[in-house]
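User: Before I run my own analysis I want an independent prediction to cross-check against. Here's the chain; please return only the structure tokens and, at the end, one sentence I can use as a sanity check.
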Amino acid sequence: MLFSRYRNPHDEVALKNFLKYNSYRNMVIKRISFIEAGSPGPHIFSKFPIPRLGAVLLSTILRERGYEVKAFIEDVAEPDWSFIESSDLVCISTITSTAIKAYEMAGRLRALGIPVIVGGAHPTFLPDESLEYADFVIRGEGEHSLVQLLAHMEKGTPALTGIKGLSYRDRDGRKVHNPSGEFIEDLDSLPEPDFSLVHKWNMSNTYPLSTSRGCPFDCKFCSVIRMFGRRYRFKSVKATLKELHYVASVSKATKFIVDDNFTADKRRTKEILRGMIAEGIKTRWSAQVRTDVAKDPELLRLMADSGCHTLYIGFESINAGTLQAYNKKQGLEDIISCIRTVKDYGIHIHGMFVLGADTDDVETVRGTADFATGHGIDTVQFLILTPLPGTPLFHDMMESKRLLHTDWSKYDVQHVVFRPRLMAPATLQIETFRAMARFYSWRYILRHLARFDFHYAAIGIFGKTAVRKSLNASYAYLQEAHVQ
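Assistant: Structure tokens:
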């Protein structure tokens, strides 16, 4: 009887929605593919791809529940579409810059009748948009929501309305956004991501691992706290050491700790590092930290002794007004002291700067390159300020109508997508890459060659070549987008 109400020939849309709503129940699901959509184009960091852990972790969880699972990370290798298109279900993870490509994949798969679930930062903040291309959207941390959704699709329970963090269309085609899910408190309950599930994964690639989630800081351009909350949640020291033992045994590559701030709890970090030394975990590792790491000599000594190769430090700016605008809670003197102190312990520094704030002008951009070179930073990223959906910056830019466009493929910190206050968009775009060229200069390359430091000399050569290509691409982008 319920089915018959949709037999009205004047209500074909409602019939289609009803059939779709009910077709994803009592499914037989055996094979599942995860896809991490790749970058929209090559950029100066393409040589060193670091997979996001979400797809790998979720693949591991479902493999442990008996499904046949593979993860395809486009920036690592071309996906095996024969496997993907023979899957019973496909999950696609995307950030903003890869959203368009993710949507294209979703359309291709849905045309074959394969249900598609999307997740990641971009769908979390723009679920209405994502539902135009996918059957389901999982917002925020998806470990529990995904398992519950699969149970619903296979057995009909739990009801869709009870799955937190889920967005979907009801039987009338209306978009429904369930309440957000709670953050996972016990990170030890999650398995260690199994990279053997990743298609063509090479153990020589930089190996990512996570020991915490969340961040109490509130940088205006950052989406971390909107995705993972304002409170740090940690894996136990014991669980972290167990994972470090494992990854050191399976890969000789550098391990990259992807935590937003590895030293958020310095006491815990010291326990981990002491454990690495005491248990003989010999591996080269890198991590993201804040400048305050330099205020703890014991911590730096333990880092050096446990195999820390490089610290990725969010300096963000040399402009005091910009640091304040970004809400960084650090000053230029903190940055200078940090560089000097960290290098005293023989640890390399990868400095990250974000250019284009309302307080930045051309001299700020040029001065940043001179500052990085003059203070001996080993490698840098000069990123163009990008208003990502979900951040206060995006909201402000929307309200003030300063966004140039919403071509998400250009929201990759390599393209100007808004109107800066103190310079033209084209000026910010070109000057940022010229600043990179000033840093990765022949002087940089020759200086490292003179020290027989072939690793950094090679980085310099690659950086110089990549920047030249990026500059040429920038001119084309500015012309096509009519950006002045």
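Sanity check: The chain has two domains: 3-177, 203-480.
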